[in-house]
Amino acid sequence: MHNSPRFTINRHLIILMPKQPVLDWIKRVDPNPPNLTLDQLRLEQNAFLISDDLDGQQDAEKWVQRRWQMFFEGFLAEWYTVESWWPQRRTFKMFKDWFDVQYHSMVWDMAAKEPITYEDWESPDDEVPVS
Fold first, then answer.
1. What are the strands, taking DSSP E only, across the chain?
2. Structural domain total, the chain
3. Does 126 fall in a domain?
4. Residues 55-61: what's their mean pLDDT?
5. Which helix (H) or strand (E) is 21 found in, with range?
6. Total-model pTM
């Protein structure tokens, strides 16, 4: 199997997949809402590399639960920077109603010969290679 993936990395992956209430919110608050379906909204979401010490979907959900506010606010800010448009009474229950947690324990490095770099979004000119 010469062409098969060969290297995994010591990280797991989480993707927060928006559900119908997210789309409803977008269409409700935007004065010129995008013509968007749920399938289109779900096409490309941020992926989060996390520690590989989690043991399955249940651990991943607990990990997200400890950080749900950060994830929720980050998602809202990516759509609209006007915080008055955001839901004002955000709860963990609301977060669970708005997002599914996808967990992936096998992360394959298909570009193993290229160094991984980190970009600090507070200072975008500072890329740091990882050894």
1. 11-18, 47-51, 99-104, 116-119, 127-130
2. 1
3. yes
4. 91
5. helix 20-29
6. 0.81
